[in-house]
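Minutes, project check-in
Item: structure for the 204-residue chain
Input as provided by the requester:
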Amino acid sequence: MKKSIFNISQPIENGVLVYNTFTTSLVELPNELYKKIFDEDDFSLPEVSALYSMGFLVEDACDEVKNMENIRNDVLKNSSEKIANIIIAPTLECNAHCFYCFENGYRKGSMSHETADALVDFLEQRWNGEKLGITWFGGEPLLASEIIDYISKKLVEKNIVYGLCVDLTTDEVIARVDRYLKLSFLENQKGINDWIKRKIYKYI
């Protein structure tokens, strides 16, 4: 038996919250119990059975990444619907320190050109032929503005018409992306963002 790669742990008062992003299970464990099971790999405890059923623990032979890929492929194979909207995460890097962020301390890095090319090819095949809605997600997606620019160019080359939702950007990014489409930007609510993001953002 082993721990799921999809577990996220968050210390709280007198315990630890554990969330599994694959099964969406959430459990609160006392510190000592969490330490024995998840730090010391003591799988002989009676609580292990329940944690296994919720997906926090899996069999040693379980390839969770492969299972996720199989689910994705099944969805793509069995779905006849065309894509009208898509959420793209060009990076999980971030320059803010939001207290609520679920990605804190986890996977970092930006999308490669190879992945971006595969994404554009996929959209070309699955696009519904109308205006494609794109939402950029992160991390802070504009830390990977070069990838956003790269994908934008590729979409135009494929004659894919799209609209874009983006916030907290810069004049430089606006100038680049605006070559491909006319953007409308929402003004930030300065007081809220200053508190949540713990930094000052420029009004657009």
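Outcome recorded: The two ends are 52 Å apart (CA to CA).
No further action items on this chain.
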